[in-house]
Structures are given as structure tokens and as C-alpha cells.
Write a structure and sequence with these properties.
This protein is α/β, with parallel strands linked by helices. It has 5 helices and 5 strands. The chain has a single domain, classed as Rossmann fold (3-Layer(aba) Sandwich). Helices cover 31% and strands 15% of the residues. It is globular.
Length: 159
């Protein structure tokens, strides 16, 4: 039986998005947005997997490394009661020709393979058009665009 999932972008959806051309490079810079924990609790109780798909070009630019990013993701999950089932990230810069950097669907498709996910029963929530484009390219019809740093609870009220 296939699983259903809620795919989430990270910066601007789960944690406060840094200003333009800035990156979360240390756990001390993390600010989890209000109501994320409550949202994830409801999502998990509804039987969804929670998968984070995020572009993290700060690695390619030398602002942080893979180990630091793993620490940041571990901290996020700890602050959110370990509701997140997996983090998938692209560390490439814009000019790299990779299949994983959103708006390409590589991160989502890898999670589908790893978790046997039914995309027709799944959702993606992001704060940029590249998130929505990646969802559609992967076959997710339920893609929700929210303003950066806004409440995820609005999504629950509208679905």
C-alpha cells in the first residue's frame, strides 16, 4: 500500500526565511515559525508522512557544509517533536545542471521511491513558484503556495 505525504519547503515555511542572499548556517539562527508544530501534529494524526524538500545552495557557496546542515535539520526535527520523516536537500548552485534543484522534481521523486508515496494523495506546501513547479513536475496536483513566514494553519482550514 502506498503512503501519502505532505512535502514542505523549509525556509519560509517551517523556519523564518533569512533575508535575500543569506542562509541559516547554524542552529542558533533557527527560528521555527508559529503554529508549525500544531500543523505537523494534525498532519501526522491524519496519516501523512512529512517530507522536507529544500534547496540549500549555501553549501555550494561555502557558507556551511553537509554536517552542519544535518545538525540544523536534526535541531528542526527535535523542536518539532520529530514529526518530520525525512529531509531531502539540493546543495547545488543555480548554474549546476542537476535534477534535484527545485523547480526540478528530483528531491520529490527520490522521496517517492524511498517511501513508496502516492503523489495523487499527497500535498506540497511552499513559499515560492519553484516549489509549485517542482510539485507539478513530479505529479503532485495539490500544491499550495503560501507567503513566506506565514502560518501553515491556513492550509488546514482551506483543505
Amino acid at each position: 500500500m502506498k503512503s501519502k505525504a505532505v512535502f514542505l519547503d523549509r525556509d519560509g515555511v517551517i523556519n523564518r526565511k533569512p533575508s535575500e542572499h543569506r542562509y541559516v548556517t547554524h542552529v542558533s539562527e533557527l527560528v521555527i515559525l508559529p503554529h508549525v508544530n500544531k500543523f505537523l501534529s494534525r498532519v501526522k494524526k491524519s496519516g501523512y508522512l512529512v517530507i522536507v524538500v529544500t534547496n540549500q545552495r549555501g553549501i555550494s557557496l561555502g557558507h556551511l557544509n553537509h554536517d552542519t546542515l544535518a545538525d540544523i535539520h536534526k535541531c528542526i526535527n527535535n523542536k518539532l517533536n520529530n514529526y518530520i520523516d525525512a529531509f531531502y536537500y539540493c546543495h547545488h548552485d543555480h548554474h549546476h545542471q542537476c535534477a534535484c534543484r527545485k523547480p526540478k522534481p528530483g528531491l520529490i521523486l527520490q522521496a517517492v521511491k524511498d517511501f513508496n508515496i502516492d503523489l495523487h494523495k499527497s500535498h506540497l506546501i511552499g513559499d515560492s513558484q519553484t516549489d509549485i513547479q517542482a510539485a507539478h513536475a513530479a505529479g503532485i496536483k495539490n500544491a499550495h503556495l503560501i507567503p513566506s513566514n506565514s502560518s501553515l494553519l491556513k492550509i488546514l482550514d482551506n483543505t
